[in-house]
Amino acid sequence: MQNLTVLGTGVLGSQIILQAAYHGKDVVAYDINDEILGKLPARWEFLRERYLADLPDATEEKVDAAVARIRPSSDLADALKDADLVIEAVPEVLDIKRDTWAKVAAVAPEKTIFATNSSTLLPSDIADATGRPERFLALHFANEIWRNNTGEVMGHAGTSADAFEDVARFAEQIGMVAIRVKKEQPGYVLNSLLVPLLSAAADLWVRGVADIETIDLTWRKATGAPAGPFQIFDVVGMETPYNLNVRSDDPVKREFAEIIKRDYIDKGRLGLAAGKGFYDYEA
User: Fold this and answer.
1) Angle at which helices 229-236 and 212-223 cross, to 10°
2) CA–CA dist 33, 125 (Å, integer)
3) Can you tell me whether residue 25 is helix, strand or coil?
4) pTM assigned to the model
5) Is residue 108 classed exposed, middle or buried when 0-12, 13-18 and 19+ CB atoms within 10 A define those classes?
6) pLDDT tens-digit profile of 23-80?
7) Burial classification of residue 250, based on how many CB atoms lie within 10 Å of its CB (0-12 exposed, 13-18 middle, 19 or more buried)
């Protein structure tokens, strides 16, 4: 499991890429065009500062070596030609994920194991689109994976035991604590706990019960947590809560998505990685 290809270079995809490279893996960073890939050097510099600040063993030389092990590509066949493992981190929309995996299945080597980083979708929702359901499962990372280092491994009924353990061992090799999820669960363990918190915070805000700062302050002070729910939204980035809520049957959740799109995404306030989201970080 030395050769990794990551599909998608957004907030979490870029973290998976650098984390794997930092732990010695050779990584291909795939995205749909060279314009997107051209933004990666700035992303590595942003993450460099976080690694140096958060990890006692991090050095400039180690981060430089990690970046040197990353090869960008916008050609899917080229990106997959040597892959032992593919991790998909494309937008949280079922049709997009299924379409991506169908294209991957057409060109990936037989040896390659497929893993989705989906936050909420089940592997069984996607497995048939991969062409190799027995070698398909989920590997889900918490945001800021260099310090929130859990890797939740979750198969579906058709996932082979060997593929499951191979992915769990890979997670451990790149510095994760492998969380072996015993049965399919929307949201795994982490998001089954986290999403209700974030949804409750959004509901309180949209309905005018309390403002963002008060909601976050309440959670931090009353629980001792280091961050409130809207600070967590900023770490996750705005695209994920927008995609998760825009088609909801709940009118409050749909309104939350509309506000995110109008007042944040459309204004470039994409979250911590962009320097501004619900809060300003640029200073």
Assistant:
1) 110
2) 27
3) coil
4) 0.82
5) buried
6) 999 999 999 999 999 999 999 999 999 999 999 999 999 999 999 999 999 999 999 9
7) exposed
Mean of the per-residue pLDDT values of the chain: 96
Query: For residues 212 and 206, what is the distance between their CA atoms, to the nearest angstrom?
Result: 10
Is 184 strand, coil or helix?
Answer: coil
Q: What is the pLDDT of residues 81-137, one digit of tens each?
A: 999 999 999 998 899 999 999 999 999 999 999 999 998 899 999 999 999 999 999
Check whether residue 33 and residue 169 sit in a common domain.
yes
Q: What is the DSSP letter of 276?
A: B
Gap between the Cα atoms of 98 and 229, Å rounded: 30
Question: Final residue of a domain: which of 136, 161, 181?
Answer: 181
Sheet holding 150-154, edge to edge: 70-73, 26-30, 3-7, 85-88, 113-116, 136-141, 150-154, 177-181
Q: Where are the alpha helices (DSSP H) in 120-250?
A: 123-126, 161-173, 190-206, 212-223, 229-236, 239-245
Assess if residue 280 is contained within a domain: no
Contacts of 124 (CB under 8 A, 6+ apart): 156, 157, 158, 184
Same domain, 200 and 170: no
Tell me the β-bridge partners of 30: 7, 73
For residue 87, being part of any structural domain is answered with yes
Using 50, 70 and 90 to split pLDDT, how confident is the model at 282? Answer: confident
